[in-house]
Input
Amino acid sequence: MTPQPHTDQRAAIVTGGSRGIGRQVAQRLAADGFAVAVGYAGNKDAAEDVVRTIEAAGGTAFAARADVGDETEVAALFEQTEAAYGGVDTVVHAAGRMPLSPVAELDLDELDSLYRTNIRGTFVVDQQAARRLRPGGALVNFSSSVVGLAFPGYGAYAASKGAVEALTLILARELRGRDVTVNAVAPGPTATDLFLDGKDEETVARLATQPPLERLGTPEDIANVVSFLAGPEGHWVNGQVLRTNGGII
Output
């Protein structure tokens, strides 16, 4: 059920907000004073658990399903948020897919599905954000440090995130005069279920030693950067890709 309008506070949409980095971002923005729409694709229970966690801490949130590749569903997510909170001030597009495979072995149906979520989905969400964000607002996309690290097996995923970075930089310039920032956060290896799935302890340990800080990132590390970009202190940062990875090269 959509809550009654709260027009006296900033409002944020977080896609992919039911788990991992997206979940932490939703909770952090709520702690920062945002009313939050927690977007999810399929895991309603997890999204509603995020809402309960936010509300238990004194925040305001609701969960809403939307396939980010479907322009009608994404428009409905924005409309529901505007109806509930009076407008949209921040959009964090954290939804994404990461199937791993050598280029020579990747099923092309899997490639199409990946690109529908990671490229089309980013374009659809960004299009609505560009139309609806209020002055002073912020759009934060998610790329990945693997675009530069070039890990084997990440070819399709890295290519999709390269497209996200290009779109981010261009949209920041297209929104000249709107007082809206557009940036991308590009995490390195981060201890989420999505990242850890399928990796043995030796692989995880090896990746954890690569940054000079000698550990994996955490969802909290990434949410801190998103919080900065969404807040007034980060509003002079625009049209950038922030490699949020502990210095991994």
Q: What stands out?
A: Strands lie at 11-15, 35-40, 61-65, 90-93, 138-142, 181-187, 241-244.
